[in-house]
Design goal:
By secondary structure, this protein is of the alpha/beta class. Helix content is about 45%, strand content about 15%. It has one domain: NAD(P)-binding Rossmann-like Domain (Rossmann fold, 3-Layer(aba) Sandwich), CATH 3.40.50. The protein is built from eight helices and seven strands; from the N terminus they run βαβαβαβαβαβαααβ. It has a seven-stranded parallel sheet, with helices on both faces. Helix 1 (about 15-25) links the parallel strand 1 (about 5-10) and strand 2 (about 30-35). The longest helix is centred in the middle third of the chain and has 28 residues, at about 100-130. The structure holds nicotinamide-adenine-dinucleotide. Nicotinamide-adenine-dinucleotide (NAD) binds near residues 13, 61 and 86.
Length: about 250
């Protein structure tokens, strides 16, 4: 029987690339996203690869919508083998003292609470069924300090913490939980931004030892490795995918 993966934020960027990469392994995909257009687009592309896929609309910052995507997945596929807990937003890039409370609440609600709600409901199913594998999306901002990302960094350091601590409680029940910490990666949004601001792109690349941004496919490759049985004895780890950026800070 095929494995099933839930991917939050699966309608774009890293989530969509990972959906396509896992489909290559024969994994059925549940695309969770707040965007219907993006979610349906991924489902269509994934189905072209010959696996089954469904879209479930959900705002991950709302616990009842998270519970609903877990229930619907079980109704349709009967199990959850892999979970890419990935949906997130970046924020306005203002200095912290210029940031309004609404923005702080929004970033924490989606990036931190959304990830915790996902773990709460998905891990419950996995532990009950004898195990499963989870990858949470952190960021370079989850492993080093940087300016203009205080709230985002708080949520992404939180991702690293929840990853390690969940392992302490449930590895004995067959759960593997890892995180990824991508540096700036050329998702459509980042690509468009840098196309409009070529100087910013030059500056970003100059600060990276490999002198280029990452690609969504490189991130997807690492997520697929961590989720599947190839990484059987890796647990609680945060893998940096950043061309050497954070290790040389
Ligand atoms: N692209 C990068 O350079 C980069 C680097 C490090 C970390 N990340 C992290 O990777 C993850 C994915 O980012 P991306 O670059 O693919 O961005 P993206 O904007 O291309 O994709 C994010 C997806 O999440 C969805 N989403 C946003 N809010 C949501 C919500 N409340 N509920 C459900 N879905 C929601 C969006 O609709 C979108 O489809 C994020 O957690 C981000 O913080 C990205």
């Amino acid at each position: 029987m095929s494995n099933t993966a839930i991917i939050t934020g699966g309608g774009s960027g890293l989530g969509q690339s990972t959906a396509l990469r896992l489909a290559d392994e024969g994994v059925n995909i549940v695309v969770v996203d707040v965007s219907e257009k993006g979610g349906n687009d991924t489902v269509e592309k994934v189905k072209e690869k010959g696996v089954d896929a469904i879209f479930i609309k959900a705002d991950v910052s709302k616990a009842e919508e998270v519970k609903n995507y877990v229930d619907k997945t079980l109704e349709h596929f009967g199990s959850i083998d892999y979970f890419f807990n990935n949906a997130g937003i970046s924020g306005s890039g203002k200095y912290f003292l210029d940031t309004d409370i609404k923005e702080i609440e929004q970033i924490v609600g989606i990036n931190l609470l959304g990830a915790l709600y996902g773990l709460r409901y998905v891990a419950e199913v996995m532990v009950k069924n004898g195990g499963g594998s989870i990858v949470n999306t952190a960021s370079s901002a989850g492993v080093i300090g940087q300016d203009t990302v205080v709230t985002y960094a708080a949520t992404k350091h939180g991702i690293v913490g929840m990853t390690k601590s969940l392992v302490a409680e449930y590895a004995k029940d067959g759960l593997r939980v890892n995180a990824i910490a991508p540096g700036p990666t050329e998702t459509p949004m980042v690509k468009n931004y840098f196309e409009a601001n070529p100087e910013m792109k030059k500056n970003a690349e100059a600060g990276i030892p490999q002198k280029r941004l990452g690609t969504p496919e490189e991130v997807a490759e690492t997520v697929a490795f961590l989720l599947t049985s190839k990484a059987q004895y890796i647990n609680g780890e945060t893998i940096r995918i950043d061309g050497g950026f954070t290790n040389t800070k």
